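My current task is to audit a protein record that another person submitted. Alongside the sequence sits a line of tokens, each denoting a local backbone shape. Where you disagree with what is written, explain briefly why. This is what I was given:
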Amino acid sequence: MFGTHNLSAFLLSSFLLWITPGTDTMYILARSISQGHQAGLISVLGVSSGILIHTTFAAFGLSALLATSAWAFTTIKIVGAVYLIYLGLQAWLKKSQPLSTLEINSMSSWQIYRQGVVTNVLNPKVAIFFLAFLPQFVEPTAGFGALPFLLLGILFVTGGTVWCLLLAGFAAMATNTLREKKQVSGWLERITGCVYIGLGLNLLRSKSQPT
């Protein structure tokens, strides 16, 4: 269909990837646990938007630069890692207090959304993943150009978004009572900070160029 093939294999592979915890999953869970359902939901939308950007880049061949240029890969990797570590330090230094609805609203939806987008876009591993994953299910001689890549990307993002929304809702609901307590909310913020810092350090440890 429109230059794609083995859609059943694509959907099965995508499902396994959706349920496997990764950087995006940990980011969304950390947001949901520390700030509640609203922040988790907006983070999901931000991450999904970032994935759409990577899909577009892959579709038009722009992400090939990251696969062939060690300099480009290293630069984006370092920027993304620094950003994640910055978020972690912010969470650690934040004054402990109950995370009420008013506090959640004090951070604009745009800020939460933007963090989700930037966290995903500045992870070069995602770009490399789509560059390697999507072509396996595209018929190179079909003559549809970028359309097959875009269709597969939309399918992947849609399913992943639904899964992450379920995770965010569950995580927020499970910790809703705990977040009302000042001492516990402080520890949740610190756990969130550790998650961000860990993700940043893990990104720094990745190879400067994929093999």
About this structure: Residues 24-205 form one domain. The chain has eleven helices and no strands. Residues 3 and 148 are 6 Å apart (CA to CA). The chain has a mean pLDDT of 74.
